[in-house]
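Colleagues,

For the teaching module next term, I've prepared a clean inverse folding example: a structure given as tokens, and then the sequence designed for it. I'd like students to try predicting residues themselves before seeing the answer, so please don't circulate the second half yet.
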């Protein structure tokens, strides 16, 4: 008898922001020879996410060029200036009906690996949890896996923080996966980037 394959888990990479605090498009910065947005896409693919949706906005064409050759689907969020929630909603809306869940990643967290993504998916398959969240030494941050049953809650109001509110709302249904605190590093300001480059040199 044929073996039923598990429903796929999609990826949603948020890459639409204008990097206002950084002063230039941080997603085009290169770390170990690859731009931050390309690293994020490759981590999502390596983690087995299918499909991988990348939400673009600011300098969409330049970001799209960085993803050339990767089997990802680009979605442009024309409302990106109204906050990250609009990009989250656009990405979730692009996830196909066949997907059982979606892992949401930020494109400016270069130390998130394919292994980390795969572990979130594995935990979801074992537990059936509504959410599988990342815990970096007590700090909760992406990537986060959302089961399909909470998708309707991810199209929240404009601004930021909708994903976190959904996690808090379903606190009793969340399974957490712990990662080293160092993997949390992201790039918001120039000094973050300088510190990151020193760390890996």
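(Answer key — instructors only)
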């Amino acid at each position: 008898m044929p073996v039923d394959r598990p429903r796929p888990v999609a990826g949603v990479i948020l890459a639409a922001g204008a990097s206002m605090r950084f002063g230039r498009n941080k997603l085009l910065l290169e770390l170990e020879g690859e731009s931050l947005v390309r690293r994020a896409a490759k981590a999502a693919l390596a983690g087995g996410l299918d499909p991988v949706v990348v939400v673009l906005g600011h300098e969409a064409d330049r970001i799209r060029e960085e993803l050339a050759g990767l089997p990802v689907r680009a979605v442009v969020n024309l409302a990106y200036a109204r906050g990250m929630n609009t990009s989250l909603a656009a990405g979730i809306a692009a996830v196909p009906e066949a997907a059982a869940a979606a892992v949401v990643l930020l494109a400016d967290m270069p130390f998130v690996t394919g292994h980390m993504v795969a572990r979130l998916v594995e935990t979801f398959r074992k537990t059936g949890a509504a959410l599988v969240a990342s815990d970096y030494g007590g700090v909760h941050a992406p990537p986060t896996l959302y089961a399909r049953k909470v998708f309707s809650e991810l199209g929240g109001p404009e601004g930021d923080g909708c994903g976190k509110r959904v996690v808090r709302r379903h606190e009793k249904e969340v399974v957490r996966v712990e990662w080293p605190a160092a993997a949390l590093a992201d790039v918001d300001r120039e000094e973050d980037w300088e510190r990151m480059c020193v760390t890996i040199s």
